[in-house]
Amino acid sequence: MPVTVGQKAPNFTLPDTGKKPTSLSDFAGKKVVLFFYPGAFTGVCEKEMCTVRDAMADFNKVNAQVLGISVDSPFANKGFAEKNGITFPLLSDFTRYVAAQYAGLVSNFAGIVGLTVANRSVFVIDGSGTVTYVWISENPGVEPPYDEVKKAAA
Q1: What is the pLDDT along the chain (154 residues), one digit of tens a residue?
Q2: By C-alpha distance, which of 8, 77, 7 is closest to 46?
Q3: What letter would DSSP give residue 13?
């Protein structure tokens, strides 16, 4: 069952690109926008994370913390962040536990049998830890509605 609006956001702790454990609870009292993306260095994910990077002023203006989450290793996420100038944290859900809990997983991603990734999705969480916005893609090739996400985070 995916996480829904009105639900308390499940806490998690995942390593960032420097292998430092980062928890959702680290941002208590602050709005958080979670972007789950299927895979670093894939075309649509690169476009999505760069679009989010370019919109950081909008998220900063409303004091919202952006986090990107994929099943990639911290090492792959670090290379991805460096290549694309991404300055918000990218977290590694290599066990796939958090992605499964929030929005589900996509099996056989890109036609590769056995490759299971996070479903492309976005969650906005308010300062009290309640989910106020959910967007879950039915097709991993579809990017989120960025204007809608920014409005939900405001």
Answers
A1: 789 999 999 999 999 999 999 999 999 999 999 999 999 988 888 999 999 999 999 999 999 999 999 999 999 999 999 999 999 999 999 999 999 999 989 999 889 999 899 999 999 999 999 999 999 998 888 999 999 999 999 9
A2: 77
A3: E
* Domain 28-153: homologous superfamily in CATH: Glutaredoxin (3.40.30.10)
Coil/strand/helix, residue 98: helix
Which residues lie below 8 Å from residue 12, measured CB to CB, with a gap of 6+? Answer: 23, 24, 93, 97, 98, 101
Catalytic residue ranges: 45
| Domain spans of the chain, in order of start | 28-153
Looking only at the bridges linking them, the beta strands covering 90-92 and 105-106 are unpaired
